[in-house]
Amino acid sequence: MSKKIGLFWLKDDFRIRKNLALIEATKKHNQVVVFYLFKKKKFEYQQAQSWWVGKSLEEFKNKLNKYNINLEIIKTETYKSFFELLFRKNNFALYWNKTYEPNYLKFDKYLSEKLIENSIEFKIFKGNILNELDVKKNDGSPFKVFTPFWKNAEKFYSEKIPQIEKKIAKCNKKVSFFNNTTNANQIFPKKKWFNKFQDYWLPSEENALEILKKFINKDIENYSEGRNYPNIAGTSKLSPFIKHGQIHVETIWEECLKFKKKGIEKFLAEIGWREFNHSLINYFPHMLKGNYSKKFDKFPWQKNSKFLNAWKNGLTGYPIVDAGMRELYSTGWMHNRVRMIVGSFLVKHLLINWQEGEKYFKNCLLDYNEANNVSGWQWVAGCGADAAPYFRIFNPILQGEKFDKDGKYVIKWIPELKNVPKKLIHKPWEVQDEKILKLGSDYPFPIVSHEEAREKALNAFKKI
Ligand SMILES: Cc1cc2nc3c(=O)[nH]c(=O)nc-3n(C[C@H](O)[C@H](O)[C@H](O)COP(=O)(O)OP(=O)(O)OC[C@H]3O[C@@H](n4cnc5c(N)ncnc54)[C@H](O)[C@@H]3O)c2cc1C
Questions:
Q1: Fewer CB under 10 Å: which end of the chain, C or N?
Q2: Is residue 158 packed enough to be buried (19+ CB in 10 Å), middle (13-18) or exposed (0-12)?
Q3: What is the per-residue pLDDT across 47-83, written as a single tens digit (0 to 9) for each?
Q4: How far is CA 388 from its chain centroid?
Q5: What pTM was computed for the model?
Q6: Which range is least confidently modeled, 169-173, 267-271, 424-428?
Q7: Burial environment of residue 289 by CB neighbours within 10 A (0 to 12, 13 to 18, 19 or more)
Q8: 3-state DSSP call for residue 378?
Q9: Residue 103: which residues within 8 A CB-CB, separation 6 or more?
């Protein structure tokens, strides 16, 4: 055992299982301190996430107490300024898990060099991913298309499934390390908006595992089909837990492979999309700042704050779009099928740059993840690596009628439509009786006509 204190830098790793860096710290040191760096500025643009992080810090702190480990939260402007101060201390070793985003990986490199310069012991571990960006074509270049990527990635991971210790060890004494610490409640957002989240979510490692087991037990068999219907429990809703590391994707893989059930292959392929998106943003980092496909740089996007606000507020007059946006605002999450519909509506019906949507999702999603969000938006807009073609324009009426036939999802989020006959639920502008619905006051008229918007979008696309 080392006499030094083991410091674990906590980022998106709120778990004790398969937390390799924390496991190593508790193996090597009798005294371990976990620290979280709170950058206020970061959460100004990711407000929903600040709720999840605040809750997770409270929960994880209590959990680590049982292992005699202190969790200390430190406010800092930048990671760099924090570590410069840390280098002045001694008698510690530093551990952390990788976050597979270009900025974090760049910082890992910088930090490693500084730690070596200052003769400080440290070790970096694999983070929450199956393959560490090492799935490439035979010629060494990165994949740009999902199907061949996943075919290789699945095989690659199966061949080297690690046998690792699953849990951290208990330390013999609880100690403090930092002076200027703060509380988790400093991180919580100021707006009341977030109070609702607790009706829907309980951020904890135990809960993530329970949700996964229940999902495998009950819903996974119908996943291939059920994942398209926003009104049923067709998907796992694990995304915020995966994002914040309450569950490791290897745990998901292992739990799934305990069973031979229909749906598992498709479900794991979705985890595969997450892997693929991480590979894309790291090998093609220009897509974090703009279009992956450069020809979209000339696309004639429109600036229209009236349309943008109607979209954000769920007041476009298209029920499936508005229900999705209201679900997002109320719960911090939106069903994947509906993310595609609302995304398509923004970029194709309203001709608004996908980056506006990306920014709004970043602020409102509890599962916001740089790789998935940027890739998801570019998939929708048609400018991504393996994207839906721009000319495939979702018809919000038909999408609604197909995937929310009875309008249950729509009525859940737009109760003002509850008296509308089922056959008109996705085109309420056809309701003639004001006793049923007063268009323009109970619910808005459509802000654009589908046919005209489609025509305009196709013409705009022709220009590039
Ligand atoms: C415009 C747009 C933006 C998106 N932004 C995000 C985001 O910021 N964060 C995020 O995690 N996902 C994002 N997605 C992908 C997807 O919508 C969510 O991962 C999914 O809805 C999460 O719900 P779930 O956990 O029930 O998924 P499940 O269907 O249960 O899937 C299990 C897990 O697989 C991964 N996954 C599922 N679908 C996808 C997908 N299409 N792409 C990549 N990974 C996937 C997620 O980690 C998910 O938790 C976005 C999709 C679109 C179209």
A1: N
A2: exposed
A3: 999 999 999 999 999 999 999 999 999 999 999 999 9
A4: 20
A5: 0.98
A6: 169-173
A7: exposed
A8: helix
A9: none
Ligand 1 centre distance from Cα of residue 429 (Å): 32
CB-based contacts of 85: which residues, under 8 Å, 6+ apart?
A: none
Q: What average pLDDT does the chain have?
A: 96
Q: Which atom of ligand 1 is nearest to the CA of 368?
A: 8
Which ligand 1 atom sits nearest the alpha carbon of residue 241? 49
| Confidence at 36, pLDDT banded by 50, 70, 90 | very high
For 42-46, 192-196, 233-237, 239-243, which range has the lowest pLDDT when averaged over its residues?
192-196
The string of pLDDT tens digits covering residues 292-302 is 999 999 999 99
CA–centroid distance, 269 to ligand 1, in Å, is 11
**pLDDT for the residue 167:** 79
Pick the atom of ligand 1 nearest to 239's CA.
Answer: 49
Minimal-distance CA residue to ligand 1 atom 42: 273
The sign of the dihedral angle between the CA atoms of 245, 249, 254, 257 is: positive
Sequence-separated (6 or more) residues with CB below 8 Å from residue 398? none
Structural domains in the chain, CATH included, are: 1-127 (3.40.50.620), 129-164+199-283 (1.25.40.80), 294-462 (1.10.579.10)
Query: Which amino acid residue places its CA nearest to atom 26 of ligand 1?
Result: 237
Residue 238 CA, ligand 1 centroid: distance in Å: 9
Counting from 1 in the atom list of ligand 1, the atom nearest the Cα of 249 is 47
User: Residue with the nearest Cα to atom 6 of ligand 1?
Assistant: 373
Nearest CA to ligand 1 atom 19: 239
pLDDT in tens, 101-112: 999 999 999 999
396 C-alpha to ligand 1 centroid (Å):
20
Question: For ligand 1, which residues put their CB under 6 angstroms from it?
Answer: 227, 235-239, 242-243, 270-271, 273-274, 277, 336, 339-340, 343, 361, 365, 367-369, 372-373, 376-377, 380
Question: How big is the chain by its Cα radius of gyration, in Å?
Answer: 24
Q: Which atom of ligand 1 is nearest to the CA of 223?
A: 29
